[in-house]
Amino acid sequence: MPAISIDTFFACSLMVLLVLSAMASTASFLYQPISSFGDEAFIRYREIAKYILLNTGEPADWGKNSQTVPEEFGLADFEAAGPYTLDVDKVSRLNGENLHALSYAQIYTSLKIPDVCFRIEIKPLFETVVNLTAIYEGEGETTYEFTVENTRSGVSVPAELRIYVVAENLLQNLGVQSSSGEIRLNVTISNDFNGPALLVVLAKSKYNTKIVSFGAYAFTHISRNPAVKDGFLRLSPLNHTLTVVLNNPDITLSEVYALTFNHSLTLEQKTSQNQHVTFTIPKLLDASPTVLVATGWNSTQFFVEWTVYPHIPAAIGISPTESLSLADVYAYTYIVTINSALYRCTLWLGGPKR
Asked: What is the pLDDT along the chain (354 residues), one digit of tens a residue?
């Protein structure tokens, strides 16, 4: 689709105005009247949104270096030829869970527009939700029944699903399953394994293989130890390197995996120093997020934890509650490309009424 078509369709198709009154105790969310689409504030904020997505910032590769704070803010991939292609590392540094994340203040300063507040959210175009619905105990094994739902605004999304199971000394690829929106899935694990396990689902739309999503569900197998998210490690992907911070000195890592729709790999350790361990994330030609799974032991307790690269969903900036002092806030939604896959980016921009 030509750049002008992308700009016109996606910039105008899902715009929502948050009309915020300083006299009110709560914010009202209303659609902006069509007649105001040509007003000065709407046009100004739209141009700022486009600038953020179409420009690399300064330096152009600021996302790759964890110590670099951009002098000028922009999310575009400096190596990309097409518009609305975002840099995987710049996007990852918008996620507050990432060790290398920028702060709101750093972005605000580098944007260099002091009268504008903002919020940026980047997420998949549809949701993949995994739930455990039943457990069946057999002789020497246990079967877990899951439901996997793929939806967009409550509407089912037909998708192809790649299923992985990670447990103690186990990485199992359950292959691809077709879904019209929701499926039931049985996972059987030998009782020889013990401790938390993780079900990972990578989804691709049947109508466009660049439209992707992911979901994961940690659950307890045999052991009484619960499946804890982020209890033992801090996982931060950047510049095709996974930094693993061990939360205490008794932790020992076992295996670290990179899972995409078409690949499953065991990562090689690069460095280890002061409870910081790094691993190389391979550059794969796969329109898919990379789910990164780390397993290990906290003394005698097994654990499994995960994150994703690009580190999404990513969100930073003002919340509706914090926006109460603003006169108008406009929302602009675009379809963007990150590592050949398509995602939804929404930017809220606002400031005092002019």
From this structure: 433 333 333 333 322 222 222 222 222 232 343 345 558 889 999 999 999 999 999 999 999 999 999 999 999 999 987 899 999 999 999 999 999 999 999 999 999 999 999 999 999 999 999 999 999 998 899 999 999 999 999 999 999 999 999 998 899 999 999 999 999 999 999 998 878 999 999 999 999 999 999 999 999 888 766 556 668 999 999 999 999 999 999 999 999 999 999 999 999 999 999 899 999 999 998 999 999 999 999 988 889 999 999 999 999 998 755 654 566 789 999 999 999 999 999 999 988 766
- With H, G, I as helix, E, B as strand and everything else as coil, classify residue 33: coil
Burial tier of 338 (Cβ tally within 10 Å: 0-12, 13-18, 19+): buried
Domain ranges of the chain: 3-123+312-351
Full-model pTM = 0.87
Which residue has 């990309």 as its token pair? 80
Read off the DSSP letter of residue 249: T
State phi, psi for 214 to the nearest 5 degrees. -155, 160
204, β-bridge pairs: 160, 212
310 prior amide bond cis, ω within 30: yes
